[in-house]
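ASSEMBLY PREDICTION REQUEST
Request ID: AP-0331
Submitted by: J.K., bench scientist
Number of chains: two
Total residues: 779
Priority: normal
Notes: Please return the full assembly, not individual chains.
Input sequences:
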Amino acid sequence: MTPAMTPGASPARRSLLKVAALACGAAAIATMAVPAVYVLAPDRRAGNGGRWIRTLHLDALPDGEPTRVVLIADVRDAWTLAKDQELGAVWLLRKGEAVTALSAVCPHLGCAIDARKGAPGFACPCHDSDFGAAGERLTGPSPRGMDPLATRLEDGYVMVDFREYRQGSKERVEVG
Amino acid sequence: MSGEPKRGAAGLLAWLDDRTGYRAFHQRIADISVDGGATWSRALGNAVIATLLVQSLAGLALMAVYAPSTTAAWSSVHYLSYTQAGGWFARGLHHWASHVLVVLVVAHLGLAIGRRVYAAPAEVAWWLLLARGALVLGLAITGHALPWDQSGYWARRVEVAIAGMTPALGPTLARWVQGGASLGQLALTRFYALHVGVLPLLLSAFTVLHIGIERRAAVKRRDVSGATTAQTPYFPAQAARDGALLVLVLLIAAALTVHARGAPLSAPADAASDYPARPEWFLLPLFMVRKLASGPWEFLFVAGVPAILVGYLLALPWIDKGVSATRGARAPVALVGLLSVIAIGVSLRRDAHDKAFVTAQSKADARAVAAIAIAKQGVPPEGPLVMLRRDAELRGEELFAKHCATCHILGNLGNEKDAIAPTLDGFGLEAWIEAVMHDPDANERFGKTAFTGLMPSVDVPNVELAADGPPFRPMTLEDRHATAVFLASEGDEATDVPKPSPRDAALVAKGEATVRERCTTCHMYKGQGDDSNQEVAPELSGYGSLAWVKAQIANPATKATYREHALDAEWKKHMPRYDHELSPLDIELVARWTRGHARGVSP
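STATUS: Completed
Returned structure:
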């Protein structure tokens, strides 16, 4: 059943109306869709890495034994800026006056690396990546060794340059 | 309308039907013809839809309490589970029904493949069925993130990292999923929006489309083949089967809920913790596949294996084109299904036998139990992590185990083999002090410390000192007791719970006199005494009080407790200072815990 043509509905007018209807629809969708996509865009501001964070006094670090230290710093997350939050963990290794720091985040898929029980070195509980006493890659799926972080001493305290690196890649690429 | 209008409820319903036509609509649904007669396999598909409807209702109930914020999510789920009337059941049902739902979806897909429902002209209907399955998995995964507990947080963290391994696109993909550089508030809000909005809408749309297109395909198939199949109305034969299966699903979910007293809740998500992450059970096959490859092959395996499987399923209508029901094309799917079940079993078994994993898991479980107990008193607005960090019982024990138990023993922490400092059970109380006065060099007192041999017994003559010192005058037992009572009273705090029992004022006075008379040769008392100023004995005023214990932990060499040379190299094994390594709050917490557990008062 075809609807009766109304007077004045010439083919030219019909095609104009068709275009107008489609254009209105497209405009309406774009009005919603463009901001919707923008709203989904990730936060472009820098992450929480790239800051010197004070940890322990050198005297509090045992010599030759890895110590897990939780970094306390202000954390920005979306709209909050929280004071003195637990930002992440690092392993500190002291040899005399020299301190090296290794990120406790597994370079494989981001789990928390633990000191190996019984033997020197580190292990990740998620996918069994093993690391040597200096954080070097031994066995398991991790594509690289543990991520070293810069350290320096300030008033006797060990400062750590906290950074986050991309996981799962052989190269060490910083994120954030 | 003719005749007398009916009265009462019947009349009202008749009026409503006249205006809406609901009876005809109802009849239309009841009469929908079921192709091939009522079957249990169809009931399985319908049970998936019915369970999803139940999930929406339970989910809406949860939304009345839940707050999607990293500082409030865990607390609101805790409130739901332990405070809100009926909350534990609504959450338990929602949680366990989601597990049953995954099983139903897999069973439904398996049955559909067995019956070759994908055969032309139902290819699009088949794709929609696959998409519905994927959406159910997506709902399960996003839902697991919402309590923002350790289990959900760490599983998502690993998954985002896997997404980040995608060649070229990875880092961008990870950022878009997380909404930023790390898994935080924006990621949680995204999971929430997906779980309660986007995925349910898509699933509803796909379900409606699937039913419509499937029915159309069935009609088309009949028209082409000319074969006739049995047609029965939906109601009551199929409806009864659907209802029975739904009730079974709900009974299973309710039984699991009652058995688990709700749904599990691990400790609050903590990025700085060491949690042994594991994915949901239905992702364990992928977890095992991951173990087969490493390096650049890893992503290929973790993403490639499911991609091949999904591609194979999508293409199944063309791969399995045979007119007769050949099994060859479906065998790989059956094999993958079988291997997946085996992989889940193997993975769970391996973890159960992995000592390091079991230890880490039980540590995480203990923290969850503690967090749940502490949160019952209310969670501060800064969130549950701050709550845990401020809790004297939990944080105090954690700090004592880490820093103090290496030398001291208290309760079940520390051990005799390694202990080189006093055992602290009863520290500051009469019995402990009397034991020191009688035999300061006992192993469980100061015998293994740097100060061994420095304090003489008050009642046992010392051979070396007796040789060139003034004649030894042993303290009477009454004086010794009075001194201990006095020193114990120095450690009493009015705020202690339970309240310290009142001490005999006469004994206390006698004890103080004894201290002034006999102890201050070496000890300080209220900053007085020790004329030579060369001794190392500690200050006795406030001995065992919170202020004394705090000062001793922060820095033993301030004269508030021990003397200014207490940290000198010659006293090498003496207690180190902790103000270099612990925050003032942590020192307060570990002092409260230690003193509380030593004296049997609440920290």
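REVIEWER COMMENTS: Chain B is about 60% helix and 0% strand.
SIGN-OFF: pending second reviewer
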